[in-house]
Structure formats: structure tokens, C-alpha cells
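Revision sheet: C-alpha cells.
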Amino acid sequence: MEQNNENKTTAMPRIGEKAPEFKAVTTQGEIHFPNDYSGQWVILFSHPADFTPVCTSEFITFASLEKKFAEANCKLVGLSVDGLYSHIAWLRTIGEKIEYKGMKNVEVKFPLIEDITMEVAKKYGMIQPGEATTKAVRAVFYVDPKGIIRTILYYPLSLGRNFDEIYRILIALQTADAFNIATPADWRPGDDVIVSPAGSCGAAKSRMEGKEDMTCQEWFFCSKKIDKEKVLKTILKK
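Predicted:
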């Protein structure tokens, strides 16, 4: 729970709940979240401040990967507590002057929310008083096509995000939905998946109706193989 300056308690969003609704001004015009993204996955993420080095490296990376996320039916939406003109000036500077890991002349096309009142940041628990009271931490919210929060990540101000993991989570969530399975530790497309939940190995096999090869090491640990090509063909838009 979060206590705001007016002594009102606001519950932070939780996995499995509807994403809190809001309207906001962005660098790409006004948005109504999550309504505008119905039928699509969307990643809503916050950064502490414009014109800062870690945030700059992250935005270059996000923008460079935007097409890859779009192929997985996922939109990106950024947020910080800076104003719109600061956002525009910063993104222009990134495109004209900054190079990171060989990525340069990068144009950020996804919306970046103006949140100078911190209304949205507080609604999503992005303001963590132990870390900073005037900056948002590096939060990441995965919202599914029905507007439900599916995963939440929080990073401190000093730690840049792992974008391989951010993308891996998106693909794993979609794979779990599409094939009614769970994904084990470090899963990537082509790895075995977990047949879950199963009260017994026999029950798991019965549910699969004998159509899939499964391996059961114990009644609670049954897995099967789904080809990488099948996963990617199901999820990615070509």
C-alpha cells in the first residue's frame, strides 16, 4: 500500500487485476489507457527522468526493439514525471546526438506520457519513497489484450533493465496462453514446457488426450516439447 501526501491510501496494482484506467497527454497525442490498446498486449514502463544516462540507454534500446515487440502484437508506452516539452527535447537529442552500443539516429515513435502531477505514477505504484519521492522507479507492467495486468517488474533508479528478459517474458506469457502450459526456469522458444496444473501424471496425460508426447519424472513434474517454429508461428506476425 502507498500513502500519498493527502494521507489517502492507494492500493498498488496487482497481477491478475484490471490495469488502472487513465487519460494522459503523450508525445504521440492523448491516450486512454488501457482502452486504446484493447486486443493488443502493451508494456507500460516508467523511467526516473529525462536527460539522464541510464534512461537514455534504455530508450534507445526500447526504440530499437519496437518493431520486434510489434511483431508479437505488443505496443510500448513510456512514462516519467517530466513535462511534454522536456520529453520532446530529450527524444530529439537522443535521435540527433546519442549513440549506444552501435545504435544511433534512433527515433522514438512510441508514446511517452507527461506525468508532472505524478497522478499516473502514483496510481501504478511507480513512486517508491524509499528510493525517491520525486522520481519514478523503473517499473514495467505487462497488460494483456483484455486489459489485465500479467507481470510486474520493478528496478531501482541505478539499474538499467534487461531487455532480453523483458522480451522473453512477453513471449513466455503468450506461449502459456496459446498452449495452456507453463514455462520453466530460463525458458525460451524451443525448450520443453511444463504441463500444468496436474493433480497427477495420469491426469496430465488424460488432459492431453494422448495427442502430445510427454515426459513425467514425477506426478508433479510433467513436461512436453513444443517446436520453436510452432511457438513463433503462433505468436509472431510476419
